[in-house]
């Protein structure tokens, strides 16, 4: 029997362990941190041996294959030892793909991937297709392949998941955009991060599709100097195409395989320029899949959006509170500030991933009346914007941030939580940060 070792006992790790056992591997799960109780129970029920708060080398370095959870960096000592022994270290996606005949649609990008993934899933589900949702979102891909029988999987793929790919290819790939993010995992080299995103298309053939933002500099530059065999489907706010998606005269037009879809942008539920791009990307998938225009139109007009992504929480005394906790990088916050059309109190800060805040300068000058820094170390934010806004305040918890924001607003203003940073200094994750924001707003 082949030995599968799973590093990381979270959603992707436990899912992979279940699939591995079902397919006849001997399985061992090892987590350097603590494993959550609900995952422990699943491992115990399935008779899968596990350890936590350690990596026992004698039980790991004898593996035939290792599935590494996306959160574990390549420079972790145990990973270096595995690579030195030439034991394959792959991602959950790579491990799982050979065990299913389902078509997969893979979606990656620095921003917009969750919204686009959810919208693609919504479009396909509304069309009555037998479709699963996985990857970086919801139930792990491996777990679903072990327990369900979907014809299609819509997968949100992070660069970390793509790093562990050898043979996997999606039939349809979407690359929403590329902006500097997670550079701490890529030796602070932007080109390494860009290359990582493009792994999504490395194994694609002529019968596959790559949908991409042709307004995005890093993307178009890569495509001029590198080759993919996939059929290219561009989308843009400024250009139009024989084959692709674009905005013209307040209409979204999508032309694919000699078929056309047109819809007035005002009837699309998602708001903001970046969401028009997400809608174009998702509609391109629907057209490739030959979904009826009427179904696409209805799905685009009733889509609810994603929690923690420009989510309108409440209006109190005519001040709109907006939760954009999912904005963990500068580019995401750029979109958020760009979509604000009233004076805004901006709550920002957290764990900086090598951010360049200067990109936000013109938007902050134009739209932001006060900044509330919510982080352990706010020096960089204060240095950049200290002379740009009149009011800058530092707080260390969400309740103080929201109460302070309320004091600084007048009727007609907005309060925007869009941190541009990771959340791990004060919160468990961006969801926890967003939930605390919503709770604090409801407590006002």
Automatic annotation (TrEMBL):
Residues that, per the record, bind ATP: 109-115
Function (record text): Cell wall formation. Catalyzes the addition of glutamate to the nucleotide precursor UDP-N-acetylmuramoyl-L-alanine (UMA).
Gene: murD
Sorted UniProt keywords: ATP-binding, Cell cycle, Cell division, Cell shape, Cell wall biogenesis/degradation, Cytoplasm, Ligase, Nucleotide-binding, Peptidoglycan synthesis
Residue ranges constituting the Mur ligase central domain according to the UniProt record: 107-285
Location within or outside the cell: Cytoplasm
Recorded GO MF terms: ATP binding; UDP-N-acetylmuramoylalanine-D-glutamate ligase activity
Lineage of source species: Bacteria, Pseudomonadati, Bacteroidota, Flavobacteriia, Flavobacteriales
Example GO BP: regulation of cell shape
Pathway noted in the entry: Cell wall biogenesis; peptidoglycan biosynthesis
Family per record: Belongs to the MurCDEF family.
Annotated NCBIfam families: murD
Main location: cytoplasm
PANTHER family referenced in this protein's UniProt entry, alphabetically: UDP-N-ACETYLMURAMOYLALANINE--D-GLUTAMATE LIGASE
One GO CC term, this protein: cytoplasm
Name of this chain's protein: UDP-N-acetylmuramoylalanine--D-glutamate ligase
Catalytic activity: UDP-N-acetyl-alpha-D-muramoyl-L-alanine + D-glutamate + ATP = UDP-N-acetyl-alpha-D-muramoyl-L-alanyl-D-glutamate + ADP + phosphate + H(+)
Record bears the keyword Cell wall biogenesis/degradation: yes
């Amino acid at each position: 029997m082949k030995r599968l070792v799973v590093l990381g006992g979270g959603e992707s790790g436990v899912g992979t362990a279940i699939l591995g056992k079902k397919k006849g591997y001997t399985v061992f799960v090892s987590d350097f941190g603590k494993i959550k109780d609900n995952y422990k129970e699943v491992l115990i029920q399935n008779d899968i041996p596990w350890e936590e708060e350690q990596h026992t080398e004698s039980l790991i370095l004898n593996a035939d294959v290792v599935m590494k959870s996306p959160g574990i960096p390549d420079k972790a000592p145990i990973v270096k030892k595995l690579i030195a022994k030439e034991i394959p270290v792959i991602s959950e996606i790579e491990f799982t793909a050979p065990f299913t005949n389902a078509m997969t649609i893979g979606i990656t990008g620095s921003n917009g991937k969750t919204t686009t993934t959810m919208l693609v899933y919504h479009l396909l589900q509304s069309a009555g297709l037998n479709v699963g949702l996985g990857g970086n979102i919801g139930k792990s891909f491996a777990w679903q392949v072990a327990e369900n029988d979907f014809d299609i999987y819509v997968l949100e793929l992070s660069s970390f998941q793509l790093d562990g790919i050898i043979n996997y290819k999606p039939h349809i790939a979407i690359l929403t955009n590329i902006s500097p993010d997670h550079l701490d995992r890529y030796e602070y080299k932007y080109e390494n991060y860009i290359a990582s995103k493009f792994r999504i298309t490395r194994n694609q053939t002529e019968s596959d599709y790559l949908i991409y933002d042709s307004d995005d500099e890093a993307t178009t530059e890569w495509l001029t100097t590198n080759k993919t065999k996939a059929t290219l489907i561009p989308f843009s706010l400024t250009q139009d195409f024989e084959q692709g998606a674009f905005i013209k005269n307040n209409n979204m037009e999508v032309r694919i395989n000699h078929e056309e879809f047109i819809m007035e942008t005002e009837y699309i539920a998602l708001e903001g320029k970046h969401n028009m791009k997400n809608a174009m990307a998702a509609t391109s998938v629907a057209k490739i899949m030959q979904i009826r225009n009427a179904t696409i139109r209805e799905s685009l007009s009733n889509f609810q959006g994603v929690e923690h992504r420009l989510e309108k929480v409440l209006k109190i005394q005519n001040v709109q509170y907006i939760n954009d906790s999912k904005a963990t990088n500068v580019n995401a916050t750029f979109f958020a500030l760009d979509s604000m059309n009233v004076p805004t109190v901006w709550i920002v800060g957290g764990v900086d991933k090598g951010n360049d805040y200067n990109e936000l300068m013109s938007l902050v000058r134009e739209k932001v009346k006060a900044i509330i820094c919510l982080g352990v170390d706010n020096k960089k934010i204060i240095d950049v914007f200290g002379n740009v806004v009149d009011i800058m305040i530092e707080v260390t918890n969400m309740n103080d941030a929201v109460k302070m924001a309320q004091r600084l607003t007048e009727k007609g203003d907005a309060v925007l939580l869009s941190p541009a940073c990771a959340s791990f200094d004060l919160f468990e994750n961006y969801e926890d940060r967003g939930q605390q924001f919503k709770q604090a707003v409801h407590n006002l």
